[in-house]
Amino acid sequence: xxxxxxxxxxxxxxxxxxxxxxxxxxxxxxxxxxxxxxxxxxxxxxxxxxxxxxxxxxxxxxxxxxxxxxxxxxxxxxxxxxxxxxxxxxxxxxxxxxxxxxxxxxxxxxxxxxxxxxxxxxxxxxxxxxxxxxxxxxxxxxxxxxxxxxxxxxxxxxxxxxxxxxxxxxxxxxxxxxxxxxxxxxxxxxxxxxxxxxxxxxxxxxxxxxxxxxxxxxxxxxxxxxxxxxxxxxxxxxxxxxxxxxxxxxxxxxxxxxxxxxxxxxxxxxxxxxxxxxxxxxxxxxxxxxxxxxxxx
Length: 297
Hints:
- Helix content is 72%, strand content 4%.
- By secondary structure, the protein is mainly α.
- The protein has one domain (3-283): ABC transporter involved in vitamin B12 uptake, BtuC (Orthogonal Bundle), CATH 1.10.3470.
- α1 packs antiparallel against α11 (241-261) and α6 (142-164) runs antiparallel to α9 (188-213).
Protein backbone atom coordinates (compact mmCIF):
# COMPACT_ATOMS: atom_id res chain seq x y z
CA UNK A 1 0.00 0.00 0.00
CA UNK A 2 1.47 3.33 -1.04
CA UNK A 3 1.65 6.32 1.27
CA UNK A 4 -0.94 8.20 -0.83
CA UNK A 5 -3.45 5.35 -0.50
CA UNK A 6 -2.77 5.22 3.24
CA UNK A 7 -3.56 8.93 3.54
CA UNK A 8 -6.69 8.40 1.46
CA UNK A 9 -7.93 5.77 3.90
CA UNK A 10 -6.83 7.89 6.85
CA UNK A 11 -9.00 10.80 5.67
CA UNK A 12 -12.01 8.46 5.52
CA UNK A 13 -11.16 7.03 8.93
CA UNK A 14 -10.85 10.42 10.62
CA UNK A 15 -14.14 11.66 9.14
CA UNK A 16 -15.97 8.50 10.27
CA UNK A 17 -14.35 8.70 13.70
CA UNK A 18 -15.41 12.34 14.00
CA UNK A 19 -19.01 11.34 13.26
CA UNK A 20 -18.86 8.66 15.94
CA UNK A 21 -17.39 11.24 18.33
CA UNK A 22 -20.25 13.71 17.75
CA UNK A 23 -22.85 11.08 18.59
CA UNK A 24 -20.86 9.56 21.48
CA UNK A 25 -20.72 12.94 23.23
CA UNK A 26 -24.51 12.81 23.62
CA UNK A 27 -24.31 9.42 25.30
CA UNK A 28 -21.57 10.50 27.66
CA UNK A 29 -23.23 13.81 28.64
CA UNK A 30 -26.48 12.13 29.65
CA UNK A 31 -24.66 9.37 31.50
CA UNK A 32 -22.40 11.85 33.27
CA UNK A 33 -25.41 13.59 34.82
CA UNK A 34 -28.09 10.90 35.16
CA UNK A 35 -26.06 7.66 35.06
CA UNK A 36 -28.49 6.73 32.27
CA UNK A 37 -27.69 5.12 28.92
CA UNK A 38 -30.09 6.81 26.50
CA UNK A 39 -30.58 3.97 24.04
CA UNK A 40 -32.88 6.19 21.95
CA UNK A 41 -29.90 8.40 21.07
CA UNK A 42 -29.15 6.54 17.83
CA UNK A 43 -32.76 6.98 16.76
CA UNK A 44 -32.60 10.71 17.48
CA UNK A 45 -29.57 10.74 15.19
CA UNK A 46 -31.76 9.13 12.51
CA UNK A 47 -34.52 11.71 13.00
CA UNK A 48 -32.03 14.55 12.54
CA UNK A 49 -31.17 13.19 9.11
CA UNK A 50 -34.84 12.82 8.13
CA UNK A 51 -35.76 16.30 9.37
CA UNK A 52 -33.00 17.76 7.18
CA UNK A 53 -34.10 15.62 4.23
CA UNK A 54 -37.69 16.88 4.34
CA UNK A 55 -36.60 20.46 4.99
CA UNK A 56 -34.59 20.37 1.75
CA UNK A 57 -36.87 18.26 -0.45
CA UNK A 58 -40.43 19.01 0.73
CA UNK A 59 -40.14 22.56 2.07
CA UNK A 60 -37.37 23.51 -0.42
CA UNK A 61 -35.37 25.44 2.16
CA UNK A 62 -31.81 26.57 1.42
CA UNK A 63 -29.52 23.89 2.74
CA UNK A 64 -28.12 25.98 5.61
CA UNK A 65 -31.63 27.00 6.73
CA UNK A 66 -32.87 23.43 6.48
CA UNK A 67 -29.95 22.14 8.52
CA UNK A 68 -30.51 24.72 11.27
CA UNK A 69 -34.24 23.94 11.39
CA UNK A 70 -33.55 20.19 11.54
CA UNK A 71 -30.99 20.61 14.33
CA UNK A 72 -33.36 22.82 16.33
CA UNK A 73 -36.29 20.42 15.94
CA UNK A 74 -34.15 17.47 16.97
CA UNK A 75 -32.92 19.30 20.07
CA UNK A 76 -36.50 20.12 21.05
CA UNK A 77 -37.51 16.51 20.44
CA UNK A 78 -34.71 15.29 22.71
CA UNK A 79 -35.86 17.61 25.48
CA UNK A 80 -39.46 16.44 24.99
CA UNK A 81 -38.44 12.78 25.24
CA UNK A 82 -36.64 13.52 28.51
CA UNK A 83 -39.72 15.27 29.92
CA UNK A 84 -42.20 12.56 28.89
CA UNK A 85 -40.24 9.30 29.19
CA UNK A 86 -37.44 9.87 31.71
CA UNK A 87 -38.38 12.66 34.13
CA UNK A 88 -41.37 10.81 35.68
CA UNK A 89 -39.06 7.87 36.43
CA UNK A 90 -36.17 9.87 37.87
CA UNK A 91 -36.68 8.54 41.40
CA UNK A 92 -37.48 5.00 40.22
CA UNK A 93 -34.98 2.13 40.12
CA UNK A 94 -32.40 2.44 37.37
CA UNK A 95 -33.76 -0.62 35.58
CA UNK A 96 -37.11 1.16 35.10
CA UNK A 97 -35.43 4.08 33.37
CA UNK A 98 -33.38 1.68 31.25
CA UNK A 99 -36.53 -0.15 30.13
CA UNK A 100 -38.12 3.22 29.30
CA UNK A 101 -35.10 4.16 27.16
CA UNK A 102 -35.31 0.89 25.24
CA UNK A 103 -39.05 1.38 24.79
CA UNK A 104 -38.55 4.91 23.42
CA UNK A 105 -35.99 3.54 20.98
CA UNK A 106 -38.38 0.89 19.65
CA UNK A 107 -41.21 3.43 19.49
CA UNK A 108 -39.17 5.90 17.39
CA UNK A 109 -38.01 3.14 15.05
CA UNK A 110 -41.55 1.81 14.56
CA UNK A 111 -42.98 5.27 14.01
CA UNK A 112 -40.16 5.93 11.57
CA UNK A 113 -41.16 2.92 9.48
CA UNK A 114 -44.82 4.01 9.52
CA UNK A 115 -44.23 7.72 8.82
CA UNK A 116 -41.15 7.70 6.60
CA UNK A 117 -41.65 4.29 4.98
CA UNK A 118 -39.24 1.41 4.77
CA UNK A 119 -37.82 2.39 1.38
CA UNK A 120 -34.43 4.09 1.51
CA UNK A 121 -34.30 7.75 0.57
CA UNK A 122 -31.38 9.50 -1.11
CA UNK A 123 -30.12 12.41 0.97
CA UNK A 124 -29.67 15.58 -1.12
CA UNK A 125 -26.04 16.68 -0.88
CA UNK A 126 -25.40 20.44 -1.23
CA UNK A 127 -22.73 21.29 -3.80
CA UNK A 128 -20.41 22.63 -1.09
CA UNK A 129 -20.20 19.18 0.53
CA UNK A 130 -20.11 17.11 -2.65
CA UNK A 131 -17.04 18.58 -4.31
CA UNK A 132 -13.98 16.42 -4.86
CA UNK A 133 -10.78 18.11 -3.70
CA UNK A 134 -7.31 17.02 -4.77
CA UNK A 135 -4.46 17.43 -2.30
CA UNK A 136 -1.33 16.15 -3.97
CA UNK A 137 -2.32 12.76 -5.30
CA UNK A 138 -5.09 12.33 -2.73
CA UNK A 139 -8.75 12.77 -3.66
CA UNK A 140 -10.96 13.88 -0.78
CA UNK A 141 -14.69 14.52 -0.99
CA UNK A 142 -15.22 17.87 0.68
CA UNK A 143 -17.66 16.40 3.23
CA UNK A 144 -14.78 14.29 4.60
CA UNK A 145 -12.90 17.52 5.19
CA UNK A 146 -15.83 19.36 6.77
CA UNK A 147 -16.82 16.59 9.20
CA UNK A 148 -13.68 16.75 11.43
CA UNK A 149 -13.70 20.56 11.28
CA UNK A 150 -17.35 20.76 12.34
CA UNK A 151 -16.81 18.15 15.04
CA UNK A 152 -13.86 20.14 16.40
CA UNK A 153 -15.86 23.39 16.40
CA UNK A 154 -18.73 21.80 18.32
CA UNK A 155 -16.31 20.17 20.76
CA UNK A 156 -14.59 23.49 21.49
CA UNK A 157 -17.97 25.20 21.92
CA UNK A 158 -19.20 22.46 24.23
CA UNK A 159 -16.06 22.56 26.37
CA UNK A 160 -16.42 26.32 26.66
CA UNK A 161 -20.06 25.97 27.71
CA UNK A 162 -19.25 23.33 30.33
CA UNK A 163 -16.18 25.03 31.80
CA UNK A 164 -16.95 28.75 31.42
CA UNK A 165 -20.71 29.25 31.82
CA UNK A 166 -23.18 28.98 34.69
CA UNK A 167 -25.13 26.28 32.85
CA UNK A 168 -21.95 24.27 32.45
CA UNK A 169 -21.12 24.75 36.11
CA UNK A 170 -24.60 23.47 37.00
CA UNK A 171 -24.06 20.44 34.75
CA UNK A 172 -20.79 19.65 36.48
CA UNK A 173 -22.44 20.02 39.87
CA UNK A 174 -25.25 17.66 38.90
CA UNK A 175 -22.74 15.10 37.66
CA UNK A 176 -21.44 14.89 41.22
CA UNK A 177 -24.52 15.10 43.42
CA UNK A 178 -28.13 15.93 42.54
CA UNK A 179 -29.32 16.67 46.06
CA UNK A 180 -26.46 19.01 46.89
CA UNK A 181 -26.94 20.80 43.57
CA UNK A 182 -30.64 21.22 44.36
CA UNK A 183 -29.81 22.67 47.79
CA UNK A 184 -27.50 25.17 46.07
CA UNK A 185 -30.47 26.53 44.10
CA UNK A 186 -29.84 24.75 40.79
CA UNK A 187 -32.96 23.96 38.75
CA UNK A 188 -32.23 20.28 38.24
CA UNK A 189 -35.03 19.64 35.75
CA UNK A 190 -34.00 22.56 33.55
CA UNK A 191 -30.32 21.59 33.51
CA UNK A 192 -31.12 17.98 32.65
CA UNK A 193 -33.43 19.16 29.85
CA UNK A 194 -30.61 21.35 28.50
CA UNK A 195 -28.29 18.36 28.62
CA UNK A 196 -30.68 16.23 26.57
CA UNK A 197 -31.16 19.12 24.17
CA UNK A 198 -27.41 19.52 23.65
CA UNK A 199 -26.91 15.80 23.19
CA UNK A 200 -29.75 15.63 20.66
CA UNK A 201 -28.36 18.69 18.86
CA UNK A 202 -25.02 16.93 18.41
CA UNK A 203 -26.81 13.76 17.29
CA UNK A 204 -28.69 15.81 14.67
CA UNK A 205 -25.44 17.29 13.37
CA UNK A 206 -24.04 13.78 13.19
CA UNK A 207 -27.16 12.51 11.38
CA UNK A 208 -26.98 15.27 8.78
CA UNK A 209 -23.28 14.75 8.15
CA UNK A 210 -23.83 10.99 8.01
CA UNK A 211 -26.54 11.53 5.40
CA UNK A 212 -24.09 13.48 3.25
CA UNK A 213 -21.27 10.97 3.72
CA UNK A 214 -23.49 7.91 3.20
CA UNK A 215 -26.49 9.39 1.31
CA UNK A 216 -29.11 6.80 2.19
CA UNK A 217 -31.78 7.30 4.85
CA UNK A 218 -33.90 4.55 6.38
CA UNK A 219 -35.68 4.24 9.75
CA UNK A 220 -33.21 1.77 11.28
CA UNK A 221 -30.09 3.64 10.16
CA UNK A 222 -29.33 4.76 13.72
CA UNK A 223 -29.18 1.29 15.29
CA UNK A 224 -25.62 0.24 14.45
CA UNK A 225 -24.03 3.73 14.62
CA UNK A 226 -25.82 4.20 17.94
CA UNK A 227 -24.32 1.00 19.33
CA UNK A 228 -20.86 1.88 18.05
CA UNK A 229 -21.06 5.35 19.57
CA UNK A 230 -22.13 3.87 22.90
CA UNK A 231 -19.06 1.65 22.66
CA UNK A 232 -16.96 4.71 21.80
CA UNK A 233 -18.21 6.43 24.96
CA UNK A 234 -17.36 3.35 27.05
CA UNK A 235 -13.92 2.95 25.45
CA UNK A 236 -13.04 6.59 26.09
CA UNK A 237 -14.51 6.56 29.59
CA UNK A 238 -18.25 7.12 29.72
CA UNK A 239 -19.02 10.42 31.40
CA UNK A 240 -15.87 12.02 29.98
CA UNK A 241 -16.44 14.21 26.90
CA UNK A 242 -12.83 14.16 25.72
CA UNK A 243 -12.83 10.41 26.22
CA UNK A 244 -15.93 10.08 24.01
CA UNK A 245 -14.16 11.96 21.22
CA UNK A 246 -11.07 9.79 21.63
CA UNK A 247 -13.17 6.61 21.62
CA UNK A 248 -15.02 7.70 18.47
CA UNK A 249 -11.78 8.41 16.63
CA UNK A 250 -10.26 5.11 17.73
CA UNK A 251 -13.25 3.08 16.51
CA UNK A 252 -13.48 4.98 13.22
CA UNK A 253 -9.78 4.56 12.46
CA UNK A 254 -9.78 0.91 13.57
CA UNK A 255 -12.79 0.10 11.40
CA UNK A 256 -11.57 1.76 8.20
CA UNK A 257 -7.90 0.80 8.50
CA UNK A 258 -8.62 -2.84 9.28
CA UNK A 259 -10.81 -3.13 6.19
CA UNK A 260 -8.21 -1.27 4.12
CA UNK A 261 -5.31 -3.51 5.17
CA UNK A 262 -7.34 -6.72 5.51
CA UNK A 263 -10.07 -6.51 2.83
CA UNK A 264 -11.10 -10.13 3.47
CA UNK A 265 -12.53 -8.96 6.81
CA UNK A 266 -14.83 -6.35 5.26
CA UNK A 267 -17.90 -8.39 6.15
CA UNK A 268 -16.89 -8.29 9.82
CA UNK A 269 -16.25 -4.54 10.09
CA UNK A 270 -19.09 -4.04 12.59
CA UNK A 271 -17.56 -6.66 14.88
CA UNK A 272 -14.34 -4.70 15.45
CA UNK A 273 -16.03 -2.22 17.77
CA UNK A 274 -17.45 -5.02 19.93
CA UNK A 275 -14.08 -6.77 20.09
CA UNK A 276 -12.50 -3.49 21.22
CA UNK A 277 -15.24 -3.09 23.85
CA UNK A 278 -14.51 -6.54 25.29
CA UNK A 279 -10.78 -5.82 25.43
CA UNK A 280 -11.30 -2.45 27.16
CA UNK A 281 -13.70 -3.94 29.72
CA UNK A 282 -11.17 -6.65 30.53
CA UNK A 283 -8.12 -4.38 30.70
CA UNK A 284 -9.48 -1.00 31.87
CA UNK A 285 -13.20 -1.18 32.75
CA UNK A 286 -13.48 2.57 33.42
CA UNK A 287 -12.30 3.38 29.87
CA UNK A 288 -9.17 5.16 28.69
CA UNK A 289 -10.00 8.47 30.39
CA UNK A 290 -12.71 7.38 32.82
CA UNK A 291 -12.86 7.96 36.54
CA UNK A 292 -13.84 5.57 39.30
CA UNK A 293 -17.15 7.11 40.32
CA UNK A 294 -19.46 5.60 42.87
CA UNK A 295 -22.77 4.48 41.41
CA UNK A 296 -25.69 6.70 42.36
CA UNK A 297 -28.53 5.05 44.22
